[in-house]
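Risk register update: the risk of archive-format incompatibility is retired. Evidence:
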Amino acid sequence: MAAARARAAAAALEAAASPPRDVVLFRHERDRFFRLAGFFCAGQGLFWTYLAHFAFTALRPTPGPGPGPGPDDPLRPRDHKWRFGFTASCLTLGSLIVAAGCLFPLRAVRQVTLLRGGSEVTISTHGPLGLGRGPTVTVPLRHVSCHAHRSEVPAAVPLKVKGRPFYFLLDKRGQIYNPRLFDVTVGAYRKL
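Archived output:
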């Protein structure tokens, strides 16, 4: 009796895991947040670029003794190394902020769809700097692994896709439309 019930449950699960049409498993629209974050990152990039330009053009060492700071002033740039280092630091910081603003939305998942038949999954993300829709990745289900159950993580569920260098992140505030189907398909741990 128990074995027959277990076989019936396994058959029902198998039928549910191979739907006759596309099924949206997860959706979380955060366009406004990523647009604001992209605007902030672009503004920071402009600010640090301007500061680097100012440092490169205005902070030249004085040619010799004259009015102004004396030769023992610690803030007086004595050579071009200080100017080049400060300029490079500003450009590096600005570039890192803009790169983070471009890469983070590409890893935040907008929608996960289990395609007809249940053998492939489509993952949609946000665009760089929050502008527009990001890329849509269609991969076989066997190449997707969820490294933590959705009830175990506080903020985002990490989703690993074989062949991709970083994790995709499913925000816990998003809506899971079919939790049981999500857990046995996309939410399952697989060794990649």
